[in-house]
Amino acid sequence: MLWLPTLFTLALDYLGQISVTDLGVSWYWNWVTASCLLLLLFTVAYLLFSLGQVKKRIRDDRQLQKNLNAQLAQSQWFMPTTPREARYFICAVSVSAGICEELLFRGYLLNLLSGWLPEYAAVTLSAILFALPHIYQGIIPAIRTFIMGVIFALLYLVTDSIIMCILLHVILDIYAGILAYPVFQSKTISSDHSP
Predict the structure, then answer these.
(1) 169-178: string of b/e by CB count within 10 Å (b at 16+)?
(2) pLDDT band for position 192 (cuts 50, 70, 90)
(3) What pTM was estimated for this model as a whole?
């Protein structure tokens, strides 16, 4: 569903109403973007390391599996539980969410709000509007989404480019899918084998 408003926004570019450059689809090589890119690479390395550690702990610790299942229960319906769902979530859903949500909430909405509001208010309001569609995940995940919305907005403002935000968003969503898969897979397997 995110692709519909994203395609509409891109159609506005095609019709000359807005420019993709206005949406932040540009790249400027300077020390800020180089630093952010380096930080992004360190983030990926950390996530890969922590993913290996967490997956090992999930596999070895039944109590941890139960705790994670309880914490993530509200999100279970859309998280991957089979290898096919995991591939779909990682390759399609994560990439789509990263591209579409960043173009819509940071590229378009933040720019629109910045024309009417002070920058801090535009960042806050765009982060709130970003978190609201995620409320189905629960209050705590929606608050985390709000915080990530603020971080993405600040990253966008610092780099003057949406590309770094899209990359970070995609990476974090892929990480969530890879992390959730063994939790929900183990729950599916154990419920399939229960009497």
Answers:
(1) bbbbbbbbbb
(2) very low
(3) 0.82
CA 11 to each of CA 3, 14, 18, 162, 165: distance values in angstroms, whole numbers, following the listed order: 12, 5, 9, 18, 22
DSSP letter, residue 17 = S
DSSP 80: -
Please compute Rg for the chain using Cα positions.
18
CA-to-CA dists, residue 128 to 38, 99, 146, angstroms: 28, 19, 6
**Contact criterion met (CB below 8 Å) for 124 and 40:** no
Locate tokens 């982060």: which residue? 127
* Range name among 38-47, 56-65, 140-149 with the lowest pLDDT average: 56-65
Residue 59, SS3 per DSSP: helix
Single-letter amino acid, residue 115: G
Let me know: does 34 contact 162? Beta carbons within 8 Å. no
Q: Using alpha carbons, list the distances in angstroms from residue 28 to 34, 78, 149, 161.
A: 9, 36, 22, 8
pLDDT tens profile 78-129: 677 788 888 888 888 889 999 999 999 999 999 999 999 999 999 999 999 9
Longest CA–CA span in the chain (Å) reads: 62
Length of the chain: 195
